[in-house]
Each structure stands twice: as structure tokens, then as C-alpha cells.
Fold:
Amino acid sequence: LDDAIRATEEVHASASKQANRDAASEASHYTSPAALDFGTQQRVSFSALQMAGMRVDAELSVRTPNVRGSEEKLLGEVHGLCQQNFSVAFAVPRPQAREEYALSFSDHHVPFKDASRLKEAERALGIQHTVQTFEAAHELSRGYVTFFDAALPIGTIFPEAHLAIFSQEDVVSVAQKRATQEQIDVTQITFPFKPGDYVVHAVHGVAKFAGITRQGRPGEEQDYFQLDYAEGDKLFVPLSQLVRITRYVGISDAPPKLTRLKSGEWSRTIDRARKNAKKLAFDLVDLYARRVSAEGIAFEPDTPEQREMEMAFPYELTSDQARAIEEVKADMEDLRPMDRLLSGDVGFGKTEVALRAAFKAVQAGRQVLVLCPTTILAQQHFETFLERFAPFGVSVDVLSRFRTTAQQKQALKKLADGTLDVLVGTHRLLSPDVAPKNLGLVIVDEEQRFGVSAKEQLKNLRTQIDVLTLSATPIPRTLQMSLSGVRDMSLIMTPPKGRLPVKVQVEEYNLDTVGGAIRNELSRGGQVYYVSNRVASIDDAVARVKEAAPEARIGVAHGQMTPAQVERVMYDFAAQKTDVLVATTIIESGLDNPHTNTLIIEDSEKLGLAQLYQLKGRVGRGHMQAYAYFMFSPHKALTKEAAERLVAIDEYQELGSGIRIAMRDLEIRGAGSIIGAEQHGNVSKIGFDLFMELLSRAVDEAKGELPEETSEAEPIVDLPGQYFLSNDYIEAIDERVLSYRRIAHAKTHEALLRVEQDLQEHYGELDEPSQNLLVRQAVLLYAKKLGITHMSVQANRLVLEGIKLSKKQTIKLEARGARIFVMSRKMTYPLSAANKPAHEALALLKELDASS
Structure:
């Protein structure tokens, strides 16, 4: 805007000097600065003066409050600052929390005032703000702590300015953060099911899912899941109990034996499986116990430099990315060595999470190793880390076959003497001569691509230092460790804005299809990956491409070429000097070219499912529609497993399907491969999902933690009304099943809100029965939080059992016609004539929760 004003002034000045021209006429050719539209995508970037090459006139030193995990530390810190005549601002967004801090500050003689109080009082009295009252309410006072109604992620102290800003987040301990972290949506990492599939009910056993049936009097219909058991028995499961049903996945293709209801057979089966799960849990927990007992590195909270580096990220973080970053940072600030799996599709932002973790480690004076499965991926990570870290004086190097022997020796020498901060490389990093002086973090990209010996070395590392593992399609063993609670897990399921799903086509190899796909991509200025995974016959593949599209310029890359040859081919392809890159699966990891939006794989039936999915992730990295052709030989019959893999890659086309692909891969191969022969009988009888649930509880017990299920029973919410997702709203029954499961598994109001938003985005505005369903789930969440055991409606009154009320709440509710029975912890509350009991119940429980 300043430049525009200056340019306009220059035009006016120039025009006024020309006597034969009218200045106003000249100026009319230009838009006035005030009328300029800079759009909605404006960004402002800040950088240190030193990095801009400018001289610093004065430097303002800052520090982060050191009060993590202790209110006593907070009281001591603010008391000392007030005595030093500091102005202290304390951002506390919740009124209840401000009241609690006010009492605590009073008890410890810390002077304070609440800037939000005057504002609240004026709002209640209807008084308009004047300039004077606003200033009085918001002015900081020397020697005082001033509470503000605001949410800040972190506080800062400016010693020279005698100013301190605290955030409530500064006080929250790592343990508290870990405890409040939202649980992963299990419907994203467990097997979906549809009518005809075998399922397992945790209480009643193995059945066949027959479908969804609607029952109830007119105006009070509800949906039930019908399960068919042995000997013609049927069970109708209400939606509130869907968390007890999982898909049956065994160790072979053989169908399971259906359970007989009311026979005692299932309880005996579960008891045996539970005992065996406990035995396995002790073995799994051995590694966990070594990690917990080991004293790792407790990294300091984020520094100003950390925030500056993060601000340089040119894109907006997705909600999943932001949550994963918080979880990783919380792990790093804990004394326990971190062992976290970060799962997310190719291009969903796992690298950004790793970058921030690495920078945090370097800020604490520690070194970082970044372990990659391929040379190409190592080179790409090296360039990414170097670009982001160089402005902050962080040294980065790479160890790969692209580097000369002399360069590798120099990098290892710097790593050993502590002058190298980050070293990226392949499995070469696990060699004995790689000896960091002060290692703090190891980042492993696509661990499943490493060999057995490399994984064993990584296993030993986990007991000593922080390890962050990145994967788009984690191997079943890794999933088992994460699902059972031995390893921590973060999921990135949200795609970046503007990303389009890759359109998949699975068919027999056809030269006309190949030619059409290549010419279509070239016509829009793009490039093509053509994968042929046999080095011996790659020249034949080149000949087929030439025959299909003679006009295309072709490059070739495979693992038997020299590093210099591969580098030259990749450089030419990145520079768009070639149109089609014929390559082996060497491109599977790391090659990131936004111009390449068509992938063709021949003999795709010979590749694994995770490998196919990774290759698909090489295209569609920008905002242009991408295409992937998975072609199989017309001359050989597909094996059953190969056919299932191709069906899966065709079925899971939506963005964020990596974790489901991993689970589908497990289903195709059978769960027996990861749990050991001694557990085959248990898994074949109760299914993989339920066995993993038992194992997870056994792991909790072995770690000395009480499983959640034993703490309190699920509330019973029996409120009249229509509760279902109608066939008109969600037509496909498998999608309805998934939506029902997501609602039932939503354990927080935030998770439930996300389900509601997703439903509206995919299927439109909610109809009344669908709204009721979500409202009832919200009622159940509040009831559980408040200790209510049963809710029902009798004679137009809401009946709440197990409720405990304060004296203030009792007086308020009785004034509104409630009857409260203190001894039996029961209350009846009058309903209005609106006849929406679930909505009224939700409003009442919200009020009770806010005042509790």
C-alpha cells in the first residue's frame, strides 16, 4: 500500500509538471491506492534483522516462563516478578479457571486484578463501553497480575521492559497434556464391515452381520444392527452399543464358527483369550518398561527461534498436523524416551512435523539423525531440511552414495565433534563409524523398508533416545505395537487444501490405454511415471512406451545405475527435459515432482499392497487431477491375494486411506503373521480386532494402569424420539454403518462435532432423526462426565439417576420445578411442551457441566 501511494504521488507530480496535460486526466488512468484489492491470501513474514543482513540497533532479550507442570512454580514466579515491579498479564480463557487462580493468588498474597470482570459486569448491566472504561479495564499495572479473557499458546517474559505475559498453557504439565490428548478415532484404524460380513460382539460372540433394521412405535423408531448367530438365533444391537461390534479377521480364509447364544461357550473362549493376551502383553511391555525406566531427555518448551522457524512454513497446517505436532512436542518435553509412530498419506505433511521436532532437538543442543530407506528420499530430505534450517545457522549434511568418500568422512568427523546438527542418510547411518557426540532424536522414514538387523538396532535405540517413525502404510507389526499401547501413535488423515484424490484404473495391460494415458498427460504439459520392476527387462518396457507414444522423450532409472547416472536422469526429469520416466520401484519413496500426474504400473499384480499405495502417492501432489493405471498381465491368471490387492487399491481411492490400506493388507495376508503361532487359536476364535482390544487392556494392566472399562459403567440414555440415519440421507448401507460407528466411537464433543461436519459436507443438512442421533450421543458424553447412570422420561419429566448436585445448583433447579432426592442421587426435571426430550436434556446437562 505504501508503494502504491508513493507511485500515485509520483504520477501526480510528473503530470503536474507537463503544462500541456491535465493532471486529473493523467491520474484517472490509475486505480487509487484505497481502491486496491489485495485479496484474501495476504501473508506477513517476520525474520531476524541479522538474517536480513541489517545492523541491530538494540536487542530485546526474552525468555519463556519456567512453570511447566506446577502451580507452585507459577505462584513463586509471578510473586517474584510483582516484587520487581513487573507488569504481569495472565491469559486465562475460562471464567471458572480465573476464579480458581484468583483464590490461589489471594491465599499466597499475590496482587492481581481481573480485566475481564468489568467487561462482564458492563455486558450484564447493558452499559456501553466508553474509551475511559475500556482503558481502565485493559490497562496493565506495575506490581500486579492482570487476568485476561484470552487463549495464548505460550507466554513470554521481557526482563528489560519489566513485562511478563503468562499463558495457562505454560502451567499445564506434559502428563496433563498427554492425559487430555484426544484418542484416535478407532473407526479409522479398524476394519469396516457390511451386510454378509462376519463380526464379533464383545459380549455375545461371533455372528454374521445381517443388516440394519428399524424398530419402535411410530414417532419413536430407532435403528438396530441385526446379528445372526448359530442355530437361527438373532440379536438386535442398539446404536448405543455399537462400540462392542468389530469385524471378524482371522488367520486364514476359513469362515469362523458362529457362536451359540446363551450357551456359556463365548465366555469360556474369551477367558482363554484374555489369559493368553496377558502372557503376550508381558513380552510386549518389556520394551516399554525399559523405555520408562530409562532416563531420556526432557527438552525445554518452544523457544522464540522455534516459533520463527515454524512461521516460515508457507502453508496452513491441517488440524491433524497441528495435533500431531503438539503430541510430538509433549513427548519430547517428557523425560521418558519418545517412541511415536506418525501415520499419514504421502504428501499429507509428515515431514513438517519431523522438521519441527528436529529443530526443537537442535535448539536444546542435541543432534538429529534422519534415517531414510532410499538414496533419493535421503537427498530430498537433505534439501528440505537444509532450506528450512540454513537461515537459523543449523548445519545439515547427508550421507548417501551421491556423496564422495571424502565428503562422507568430513560429515562423520563433524558429527563426532558436535559441529554438525542434523545428518540425513540411508541405513548407512546405522554403521559403527557413525558416532554422534550428543544425539537427541532419530527420525525414521518408512521403517518397514529396512531390514531385520536395522530394525533391531532401532529397537535398542528406542530405550535410550527419542524416536519418531513416519509411515504412510505402517507394517502390521508396527500397527500392533501402536494399537496395543506399547508405542504411541498420531494419525494425519486430513488432506491439504485443494488436494484431489487420484483417479485409479485397474485393468489388463493394453498398449492403446498406455498410449492414450501418456498423450493425455503430455497434452496438458505434464509428465508420466512408468513403473516396470524388472531391471533385466527394463529395455523392453522402454520399447513398449516408444511404441505406445513415439513422440514422448524417455528417461530410465533403476537401482543398478551409478549414483551419477541416477542423479542426471532425475535432474533431467525434474527440469522437464524428459516426458516419461521408465523406472523400477526406485521412485517409490521420495521423488516429489508436481508436474508428474500420471502413473502407469505394468505387472502391478507382482507388487505388495502397501507398495502399490506408496507408488500411487508419487502423483497428485499438486492441485491438478492425477491418474494411476494399475495394469496386470493378460496372459496369467491372478492369484487370489493379487486380485484382492488390486481390488483394495481400486476400492480405497479417497484421500487419507493409507492406514486403511495397511489394515486391509493385514486382512489379506492374515493376522497370524504378526502374533506368533501360539496365538493362532485365540485369533481364529475371537478375531484380530477383539484380540487386540484384549491385548491393549492387558498391556495397560502390565504397565500398572487400570483399563477405562473398569472405572465406570456406560450410562443408559433412554429418551423417546426418532434416532437413525435415514436411507434417503445416506443411501449406501456400508457408508451408513461407518457413520453409525463413528458416532458411537466419538468420545469427546470435539470428535462428535467433526462427525457432524463430515456428515453435512458429504450428505447435506441433517434431517431431524439424524440430528436427534447426534444430540443423544452428546447427552451420553455429558452424562458419563457428570456420573449420571440412567436417563429416562416419565410423565413428561426428565429422570436423572446417579446425579450429584451442589447446594447452589440444587436451589437453582428447585426454583424451576425440579425435585431432588439427595440420598438416592436422583432428580426429576419438568420438560416443556416442545416434545424434544433429547435436546432439552442436552441443554440441562450443558448447564450442569458449566456450573460444576
User: Anything to note?
Assistant: The two ends are 51 Å apart (CA to CA). The longest helix spans residues 265-293. Residues 120-137, 174-182, 707-712 have pLDDT under 50 and may be disordered. The first strand starts at residue 87 and ends at 91.
